[in-house]
Amino acid sequence: MVMKMPKRQKRANRIVWTISAASALVITMFDVFMFWGNAEFDELLFFAVIAAILPPAALAYVDYKWRKAVDEQLPELFRIMVQAQQIGMTLPQALEEAAKRDLGPLTAELKKTTQQISWGMSFDEALSDLAKRVNTTLVQRTVPIIIEASYSGGHVEKVFDSMGKFIQTTLFLEKERRTQTRPYTAIIYVTFFVFLFTIVMLFKSFFVSVGQLPTLGTPFVEPEGVRRVFFDMTMIQAFFGGLVAGKMGEGTIIAGLKHSLILMLCGYLALKIFL
Asked: Cβ atoms within 10 A of the Cβ of 230, count?
């Protein structure tokens, strides 16, 4: 059974980013006016960053799953259209037949396309609108081929069969790429946790002891100041490390927001518990 994921709309995307940015700005302003220079300042600033990236990260993940589910059903779509062509159906009829099958989130888009054709929109215009709505790389590449096939007329099942195999190969190569880059993403996680372990051990074994030494006047090392420095360093490392993990693993910076979120939360909990 194909997982059905909702499609991200551009309007919803703008709303989420606006709300996230506004929430982060409000928290930051409150933090500046109320806790500037205090130990609580860094912690509240951390929650401002979380408020800024959590909704976009969730939205980006849902959109990624939706697009992936659409692309994975394209070979099945072409297989159905080949079968329909072999029994004498026209391309609009073949598309209507495909819309009756369970193709996950692609089914709803195909039904919308067949409705547009039934309302009088031309076949190529309806398909072009489908490509704009779905807007994945594979759909953008395959829709023009279907349109050109409709212009040529006759049976073009060989073209669709070759296209289906091409898409299967592309999906396989993409899966292989993700598999090969997964160790690099794991390295970023391991590096971060090693960094986290190092600063915790350094703080407990050295800075706390030095801070407790008797001195005349101002202490040589203030554990609270060191704790704030370590906190800031951890959050910066987590945020940018997550972005790099997303770029390496999935090819986009925005995909790294979920990694940044995970690393930042892990770092925050670790420092709260051990420091």
From this structure: 20
Q: How far apart are CA 159 and CA 3, in angstroms?
A: 28
DSSP assigned state of 255: G
- At residue 79, the 3 state secondary structure works out as helix
For 4-57, what is each residue's pLDDT tens digit?
Answer: 444 556 677 788 888 888 888 888 888 788 878 676 778 888 888 898 888 888
The secondary structure of residue 205, as a DSSP letter, is I
Angle between helices 157-202 and 74-86 in degrees, nearest 10 = 170
Gap between the Cα atoms of 65 and 5, Å rounded: 7
Contacts of residue 250, Cβ cutoff 8 Å, sequence gap at least 6: 64, 178, 256
- The closest of 165, 207, 190 to 245, measured between CA atoms, is 190
Place of tokens 């159906």: 89
Question: Right CATH number for 73-172 from 1.10.1740, 1.20.81, 2.60.40, 1.10.287?
Answer: 1.20.81
How many Å apart are CA 211 and CA 222, to the nearest integer? 6
Domain ranges of the chain: 8-72, 73-172, 174-275
Q: Is 90 left (phi over 0), alpha (psi -120 to 50) or beta?
A: beta
Full-model pTM: 0.77
Separation between Cα atoms, residue 105 and residue 126, nearest integer Å: 17
Could you tell me how many residues make up the chain?
Answer: 275
Distance in angstroms (rounded) separating the CA atoms of residues 188 and 238? 9
CA distance 160 to 84: 11
Contacts of 248 (CB under 8 A, 6+ apart): 181, 184, 185, 188
**CA distances from residue 259 to 75, 82, 85, 221, 264 in whole angstroms, order as listed:** 31, 41, 45, 34, 8
Helix (H) or strand (E) holding 264: helix 257-274
